[in-house]
Amino acid sequence: MKLVKKLEGDADLAENREQRAIAGLKRLIGDGSLQPGSRIPENAVAQSLGLSRTPMRSALKSLEAENWVVRNSGGGYFVREFTLRDVIDMIRLRGAMERLVIRLAVERGARASDIAELERLAQAMDDTCHPDIDSAEKLELLAELDSEFRKLIVQLADSTLVTSILMRTMSLPFIGLAGLDFETLSKEMRGNLKKSNALYHVMIAAIRDGDGGAGVQAVTEHMDIFIATMRAVIDSSGGRSS
């Protein structure tokens, strides 16, 4: 019995280290520390994250499956390069899935407690953006709240299949607020993101009132704003995600 518990504990620890490596690599890619097309120095990155090469290798395999990195035939991993078209296509894929999700959430209804939690998250996002998204910390918090909001709507859709597909879509690079670097956002871009907050409240009202059309329209408008923001960010960096 003790051996089984030890093995389970070792497995949990290994998984935790791999998740730390994945999060660290995504952060380094997202903030430009690891540039598109560059080789990933596995030893140096592992050391900077306080990890061994074993969880680093596992993390790189996971990120290869998620299209964040590519493996060279001669060995080693490189940060995948994405064109503006690639990024826009990924965001549109996410938008198509989220339109289905909110329609399902509307059809299946929500408890008052679920609506209250969505309203709490939307208000927290409003508060975070007031008077401006003027720091990297605010952008990070906004990304976390946005993720919680979307996950709750996915739960309300109550579809294991759709949830599985959407979660895989959400793991793609650069298609959510977490893929934005504060330093690359102009005041106008931050203003557009702030304006898009009103659409969270429209989504909530659509679920509460059973209005699938309004929910789908709100998701579409939200994605359009995000596409415009990513287009501006990538154009300003020379046409490639970096």
Task: Give the tags.
2% strand, single chain, Four Helix Bundle (Hemerythrin (Met), subunit A), globular, 242 residues, mainly alpha
Order of helices and strands: HHHEEHHHHHHH
The total strand number stands at: 2
Strand content: under 5%
Q: Terminal Cα separation, in Å?
A: 50 Å
- The shape, in one word, is globular
Largest sheet: 2 strands, antiparallel
Low-pLDDT segments, ≥5 res: 2-8
Give your account of this protein's structure.
- With 242 residues, the protein is mostly helical.
- The chain folds into two domains: 2-79, Winged helix-like DNA-binding domain superfamily/Winged helix DNA-binding domain (Arc Repressor Mutant, subunit A, Orthogonal Bundle); 84-236, GntR ligand-binding domain-like (Four Helix Bundle (Hemerythrin (Met), subunit A), Up-down Bundle), CATH 1.20.120.530.
- The chain is 71% helix and 2% strand.
- It is built from ten helices and two strands, in the order αααββααααααα.
- It has a two-stranded antiparallel sheet.
- Helix 4 packs parallel to helix 9 (198-209).
- The longest helix is centred in the first third of the chain and has 29 residues, at 2-30.
- It is globular and about 55 Å long.
- The termini are far apart.
- The model is unreliable at 2-8 (pLDDT under 50).
